[in-house]
Amino acid sequence: MAHALAAETDIERRILALRTVSRVYPLSTASAVLRSVAARGEGASRVEVRDGVVRVAIGTAAGSIARQVAHDVHELAVEAMAAHGLRFVRTEVEIATVEI
């Protein structure tokens, strides 16, 4: 689980560095609460990694094409999972808001 928590934090950091992403939203699931407890006060990531699946909800920046932003998030998730030695299955990117 420690590897997954490190990957979550790393992926979130990478996503926030994208100019095309305006915001990363907290995941509103029970697993988010469990991850918060598991983080032991280190601050829970707004990215979830479970069984090789990366989940994140984002807002796109003004002028960005949502499909391309989702692809960029997927690419960096693949890279981060490999960097942490974790199995990758897929990325689930929810576009929660689109700035115009």
Structure in words:
The structure is a single chain. Helix 1 (2-16) packs antiparallel against helix 3. 27% of the residues are buried. 42% of the residues lie in helices and 25% in strands. The chain starts with a helix and ends with a strand. Strands 1, 2, 3 and 4 form a four-stranded mixed beta sheet that branches. The protein contains three helices and four strands. The model has no long low-confidence stretch (mean pLDDT 86). Helix 3 (66-83) links the parallel strand 3 and strand 4. By secondary structure, the chain is α+β, with helices and mostly antiparallel strands.
Largest sheet: 4 strands, mixed
Shape: globular
Oligomer: single chain
Number of DSSP E strands: 4
Number of helices: 3
Give the helix/strand class: alpha+beta
> What gyration radius follows from the Cα positions, in whole Å?
13 Å
Q: What integer is the average pLDDT?
A: 86
Write a brief structural summary:
With 100 residues, the chain is α+β, with helices and mostly antiparallel strands. The protein is built from three helices and four strands, in the order αβαββαβ. The radius of gyration is 13 Å and the shape is globular.
Break the fold down into its secondary structure elements and pairings.
Elements: H1 2-16, E1 21-25, H2 30-38, E2 48-50, E3 53-60, H3 66-83, E4 90-98
Parallel strand pairs: 3-4
Antiparallel strand pairs: 1-3, 2-3
Helix pairs in contact: 1-3
Structural features:
single chain; 100 residues; 3 helices; 4 strands; globular
